[in-house]
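If you are new to this repository, start here. Below is one unmodified record pulled from the training split, so you can see the exact layout before writing a loader.
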Amino acid sequence: MIQIGNHQFEGPFASTDRLQDRSGVYAILDRRNDGKYYVIDCGESQAVKTRVENHDRRTCWIRNSAGTLTAAVCYTPNLQQAGRMQVEQAIRQQCDPVPSIQWVRSDESVLIQLVDVLTGLVSSRVNGTAPPDSAKARLAAQVEERLGMKLDHTASSEKKFNIFRIKPGGRW
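And here is the target side for that same chain:
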């Protein structure tokens, strides 16, 4: 057993063989040379073992580990997803599993790839850099059509989504 934040977790386990496909909150720990365990990620799942074994951030855990990766779990048979998410959030606040911003290659994350595409799309539309017959211009037109508005710079008072044109020298 290991205490993480205010919760008792089973483990840490060096292998997922000891995890079960039950609902719970898991913590990915890095056992370093000083003998201490550091939380590098945490989450919740209805099927902990499957989630940890197939996690989309697994390569990130490996790349950012300074010691031995292990997993610990707090099974929560009496909690629904909302309750598990509260436990996860408490652990994130207490243990700060993301102490710094890490570089992530976009080919390792579909969401980052989507952000790259959308950022490039908006930038090319606002700056007028995409040729009119290009795929980027056609996609921008489709996004504008679905949004019901032009992709253009907005006032800072705009709700939900702002596009700022930033000029060198720190002015908007």
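Two things worth knowing about this chain: The mean pLDDT is 83. Residues 104-172 form one domain.
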